Amino acid sequence: MVRGEPMNRWHLALAVATWLILSPSCGPAAWATEDGVEIKEVQVRLLDHGPVVLLIVGDRFVPIHVDLTVAVSIVHALSGGASQRPLSHDLMRLMLLEMGAKVTRAVITLKDKTYYADLTVSLGDRTLVFDSRSSDAIALAVLFKAPIVVVKSTWEAAGQPWTEPKQETS
Questions:
Q1: Taking CA 27 as the corner, what is the angle to CA 21 and CA 31, rounded to the nearest 5 degrees?
Q2: Which residues are CB-neighbours of 86 under 8 A, at least 6 positions away?
Q3: Using one digit for the tens of pLDDT, what is the confidence trace for 60-81?
Q4: pLDDT digits (tens, 9 = 90+) for 146-169
Q5: Domain range for residue 110?
Q6: CA-CA distance, 8 to 1, in Å (whole number)?
Q7: DSSP state letters, 12-75
Q8: Residue 52 domain-assigned (yes or no)
Q9: From CA 167, how far away is CA 93, in angstroms rounded?
Q10: The whole model's pTM is what?
Q11: pLDDT for the residue 84
């Protein structure tokens, strides 16, 4: 068995794992250059039919339904808390940081009733754009404190009026 230098194998393993987790499709998507709306606030709510991420700007929001694991990951990232064991997004963040990479932007779009995302990662002087599930891109963007952008046409089509729940007074 031929063995390479331990560090080279480690970097190769990290690179392969990153590629496998993010997506086999890498490169700029058609909507990556379209104008968009930068999200000012991210919230996670639990509704009767499951968790939903709210991407909020002013008096409008876009709801994105996510699975419970991603919801927990986003809640931990928003609160600055940590789970007892690293979740997938925590692991991805650690791997990217170890390689000297960071998430710099997530761009969300809606196509055929499904949300998609482009996740932009900078690695040295390279910028890579990965096709991603919107929920994974949101989780990683929150962990890296990177901007989340909703493509303008998606914002106009899926955006809903936002009203903060009123507090009860006695």
A1: 105
A2: 94
A3: 999 999 999 889 889 988 988 7
A4: 999 999 999 999 999 977 654 544
A5: 26-161
A6: 16
A7: HHHHHHHHHHH-S-BS--TTTTS-EEE--EEEEEEETTEEEEEEEETTEEEEEE--HHHHHHHH
A8: yes
A9: 36
A10: 0.76
A11: 75
What is the CATH classification number for the domain harbouring 53?
A: 3.10.690.10
The position carrying tokens 């499951």 is 50
- Residue 141 tokens read as 């963007």
Average pLDDT of the chain, as a whole number: 81
**Who's near 22: CB < 8 A, 6+ residues apart?**
92, 119, 121, 130, 131, 132, 136
pLDDT at residue 10, as a whole number: 52
Phi/psi of residue 75, nearest 5 degrees: -60, -45
Q: 58: buried, middle or exposed (CB in 10 Å: 19+, 13-18, 0-12)? A: exposed
Q: Is the dihedral of CA 22, 26, 29, 35 positive or negative?
A: positive
Query: Comparing C-alpha atoms, which of 119, 128, 79, 74 is closest to residue 100?
Result: 128
Q: How many separate domains does the chain show?
A: 1
Q: Are 68 and 50 in contact (CB under 8 A)?
A: yes
- Note the pLDDT of residue 162: 79
Residue 11 lies in a domain: no
